[in-house]
Write a structure and sequence with these properties.
By secondary structure, the chain is mainly alpha-helical. The protein is built from 11 helices and no strands. α2 runs antiparallel to α8, α8 packs antiparallel against α9 and α9 runs antiparallel to α10.
Length: 235
Amino acid sequence: MTGLGEKLRDEHARPAVVILAGTFLYTLWHVYGRPRFYTDHLSESISFTGNPVVDAGIYWAAMNLLLIVILLWMMKGIFGDTLANYGLCKGNVRFGISRLVFATPILVGIGYLVAQQDAFQEYYPINPGVREAASTGLFLMHVAVLSTYYLAWEILFRGFIQHGVKPQLGLAAAIAVQTLASTLAHADRPGPELIGSFFAGVGWGVMVSRAGSIWTVVLQHWILGIALSYFICFG
């Protein structure tokens, strides 16, 4: 095991390990970590509260948190790095806040516009029971669960992958790699979102580099997701 750990820590092997591990973890998360998987395969045998919408949300949040724990364990336990090396630090707070303030109305506007399209209404919210229930309480639960989802997403793509390959490949190639990964991760989404995810991958990758942390991008992604879900559920 020690020998394997040393091989995984080897700086020359790091980009391959990060890309392969990131791909494998995303695949498992995509297949087994969504509320639809719980609803379709587990809801009849496993119940947390008796409310299927809440139960699907709890399951989804648990899978998001599990992915986060695995990624943190790889950063610290496997690679022996500090979390700051993956953007999990305070960074340039002034830069991050200014970009968040500037981006928020734009993101809310995008959420409103795309929520009018049939393709987005068919796909979102990711926990479909939230829309069917049309409940403010359930929507607030959904907002909380979304925070774990976008945190896991950004730690994986802009944290683990981008920062994990940057020392060997350089910043430009690291942003390109995570943009490729995060864009392909949108392959099952509506067409405009798939196209937009390419530009988001580049833009948010640069922003993470400038900010020195992933937090402003986590919040921007979360706000976009909340706006889209809100306008679909109540708009």
